[in-house]
Specification:
This protein has ten helices and ten strands. Helix content is 33%, strand content 24%. α7 (192-207) runs antiparallel to α9. The chain folds into two domains: 6-177, 3-Layer(aba) Sandwich (Rossmann fold), CATH 3.40.50; 192-295, GMP Synthetase, Chain A, domain 3 (2-Layer Sandwich), CATH 3.30.300.20. It is an alpha/beta fold and 299 residues long. The structure holds guanosine-5'-triphosphate (GTP) and magnesium ion (MG). Guanosine-5'-triphosphate is lined by residues 14, 16-22, 35-37, 39-42, 63-64, 126-127, 129-130, 157-159.
Length: 299
Amino acid sequence: MSSVTKSGYITIIGRPNVGKSTLLNHCLDMKLSITSRKPQTTRHQLLGVLTRGHSQFLFLDTPGINAGRKRSGNSIERYMNRQALSTLKDVDVILFLVEGTGWRDGDATVLKYLSSTEVPVICVLTKVDRLRNKSLLLPLINELSQKRNFRAIVPVAALRKEGLDMLLDAVESELHERPHLFSADEITDRSTSFLVGEMIREQVVRQLGAELPHRSTVLVEKIEEADEQTTIFASICIERVSQKRIVIGKGGSRLGSIGESARHNISDFLGKRIDLRLHVRVRSGWTDDRKSMAELGYR
Ligand SMILES: Nc1nc2c(ncn2[C@@H]2O[C@H](COP(=O)(O)OP(=O)(O)OP(=O)(O)O)[C@@H](O)[C@H]2O)c(=O)[nH]1
Ligand SMILES: [Mg+2]
């Protein structure tokens, strides 16, 4: 092997729910980014670093891009689109994700944003394990290759780790000779507090109905480290008093279950015993108020 090192930023772009965060986690072989069955799970850019031999892949997971919401959506939706679209400028490779089950209107919206970029775009067909008949991939690949000149079109099934080596090879050939920016054991530049907040929010998204997760967020107030265990004080912030009942649940059962699953995941991630003190707070209208959003980490 030569001693030449390569590195580069790779953004993972696509409509909500297409499988971006799952792809990042399985490329890194660890659960860094939160995932769920519901669209709009990811809200912030998240760097995930993979060092493989002489190459360093600096992946950026992004929120799903929403159609037509750039101007008309509320502040948090605009924030999410901005988080995703701002990555397009300064990266070396764009991964444009489309579900292997077929092209949708939401994909066309994302592709439009890529029309003026000079950055190489690789199209990734996700969730191909869901296709009973794999021969359906060929017409989709043909359809896609007419939409844009992609550097490659790579089918993957991230949950089964299928196609990931081929994808990493395709990405690697686009990376430039450059020193590594992170040491081989670094995974992200995000703080523990950010990652812990996300792990709690993941349970909010997974365990509450369709509407409430979009109206809530998590604020990690304090992390106290001791020899035996780490104590984390955090709040689930919602918009209205009436939502409190839903988050807390009968006899505190829902909040208890959110806290327990989050505590388990945080403990696995940090490799420590965790005491999680979770509260529910009302911050009225925070999703449409820039100042509140900034205070809650949406800058
Ligand atoms: N069967 C199957 N399901 C997958 C695969 N990859 C992702 N999924 C599922 O698709 C859903 C969405 O995955 P995410 O990774 O959260 O999608 P996302 O694009 O990050 O979504 P947002 O952050 O909301 O934009 C989850 O239920 C995943 O388990 C896959 O390879 N196969
Ligand atoms: Mg995501």
